[in-house]
Design brief:
This protein folds into three domains: 47-130, Roll (Ubiquitin-like (UB roll)), CATH 3.10.20.310; 132-208, membrane protein fhac (Ubiquitin-like (UB roll)); 226-360, Glutaredoxin, CATH 3.40.30. Helices cover 33% and strands 25% of the residues. It has helices at 11-22, 63-73, 82-96, 147-153, 164-180, 226-231, 246-260, 274-285, 287-296, 311-314, 352-360, and strands at residues 47-57, 75-77, 103-114, 117-127, 133-140, 187-195, 200-208, 263-269, 297-303, 325-329, 335-340, 345-346, 349-350.
Amino acid sequence: MPTRNRSTLAFLALSYSLGLFLWVNSAFAQNKSETPPQKVTTAEQPTVVVDAINIEGGIELSTDDKASIANNLQGETAHSDWLDRLKANATGQLQNDGFLDGTAEAKVQSTRLLDGKEHVVVLLTLTGGKRYSIQKVWWAGSSVFSLAQLNSLGLLQVGDVFRLSALGESLSLLRQAYADRGYSQIVAVPQFEKFPESGKVTLYLDITEGQKSANSNPLQCKQYSAEDIQKTPYVPSASYEPKLDGQLQIARGQLEAQRTNKKLLLIAGDKSCGWCHLLDQTFQRNPATTELRDKLFVVLHIDVSENNGNECALKVYPKAPGFPFIYVLDATGKLLGTEDTKDWASSDGYDPHRIEAFLTKW
């Protein structure tokens, strides 16, 4: 690994943005046994409903980039510091999309009180700056995996836009791969260095493996042949079925995705999960959202109940913090991204507009 001036590394940006996007889940994670929470408001603090987001500035961003930011910020929010949090979320989205120097300012353009709720239109002023891409990934400290294996494990490919969420997901995949080999105490420390002149980022990932567990039992998974997969009929899974083998589901779904030129949408959950039922009901009640989903994706419900678990099917993907949880794959099975469905929640359950914004960004 080359020497480098650590004072130039963007530690603060990494800590802030990863914290914002990846590790706030503990306060909001949806457990399988949860039921949708009820929203509580008081007369002193009326619910704020963001009716519209108007965007100015951000000439570096595409129309789709701006639409994605606006769609993700609309909907209901708590009253007290909602505008500051909206601004922070917009800034976080910019930085997660590679605009590491991006900033967002927000102010209320108009407001009206309707049925005890404060309806507002927000003006969002964006500054993107350069969009950073990955120019090099340096690994150190691994005795278990080769450099080629480490590079293939994650979502950090040279030339790709540097997304902090992809970095977090890659670290999850790395920890899972080590755990499968019996190393449960692995620590991976990421650092990155920005080069504003070129809009490039160099990543440094230092691994401390710890001791291998003496009683580790690797997961034993079935191996399916190409013939096994091809002779299995493709049947869209409309619900969670414990009797289905998720490995075979995904492998057969890949063939269907290749045939139809679509991507795969894995929805992990089970029949005892209240939020899982609520998500299915959201699609049932919104035909346009369902039509958009099925136009773009081959959809598979992967059962994670005690009767199945499908550990083998999901072992190569990040562990879900709660259910339902979404995995987006390309037609070869490569992970493109994930979504914690808590981000789609509103006081009425799930917001179909937020779901549609997620579906269209792939």
